[in-house]
Design goal:
Blueprint: E1 15-16, E2 20-24, H1 30-37, H2 53-68, E3 73-79, E4 84-95, E5 100-108, H3 117-132, E6 137-143, H4 147-155, E7 159-169, E8 175-183, H5 188-200
Parallel strand pairs: 5-6
Antiparallel strand pairs: 1-2, 2-3, 3-4, 4-5, 6-8, 7-8
Helix pairs in contact: 3-5
Length: 210
């Protein structure tokens, strides 16, 4: 993990598609982000549990810290046509030495489930990571019980690598098994085509993911 004050990925990174804009996390976006996050349906089978205001505030403060030192790039998902904050995602576990990173902390308000927002988000992030940053590996992971998120990851064409048992401590001291997936550069052309086809069909179901 690189802790340099000269970050690998720019802290103010923004990515724009047709239906979605990914904006850097800023304090003026916290209020609309909280409005999107407080729907309890988002956090079913999700270890993040940001639907409680105290937990949301604490996690956002942590995000500002990791953003400031270049450990993570938290992004706010904006539905471009309506200018409505729809959720969040991030580049995380940035490892400059080994040229790899993780895409995670992805969640959307239920109004945007079943739309193409998550599909376009992933396309923008994969294109940036592989084509601009030229990373060697992208990791994705999620709670084994979060079947909706697992289905979403599989639709990306990601390769299942295994399950780490009792990997994460969640709410009420409950431990969760976490499934790990990866995407490598040789498969990017196929993944990109798959996502573009999903977008042309109207997208795939979107849901929260670890």
């Amino acid at each position: 993990m690189n802790l340099s004050l000269s970050p690998w990925l720019p802290r103010d990174l923004s990515l724009k598609g047709q239906q979605v804009s990914l904006l850097p996390l800023e304090r003026n976006l916290l209020a609309p982000l909280w409005e999107a996050a407080k729907d309890a349906r988002i956090w079913t089978n999700n270890v993040l549990k940001l639907g409680q205001e105290e937990s949301f505030g604490r996690r956002m403060q942590e995000a500002f810290i990791t953003q400031s030192i270049g450990m993570e790039v938290p992004l706010v998902i904006l539905h471009a046509p309506s200018q409505q904050v729809a959720g969040s995602t991030r580049f995380m576990n940035l490892d400059r030495d080994n040229n790899k990173l993780e895409i995670g902390w992805t969640w959307l308000h239920p109004d945007f489930w079943g739309t193409n927002l998550n599909t376009e988000c992933k396309l923008l992030m994969l294109e940036y990571a592989f084509e601009i940053q030229q990373v060697a590996r992208i990791t994705l992971r999620c709670n084994r019980e979060n079947l909706r998120s697992i289905a979403t990851i599989k639709k990306l064409g990601a390769t299942y690598e295994g399950t780490l048992r009792s990997e994460v401590l969640g709410e009420k001291q409950v431990r969760h098994d976490i499934e790990y997936y990866s995407i490598l550069p040789p498969g990017m052309a196929g993944h990109k085509k798959t996502l573009q086809e999903q977008l042309s069909r109207g997208g795939a179901a979107a849901s929260p993911a670890l």
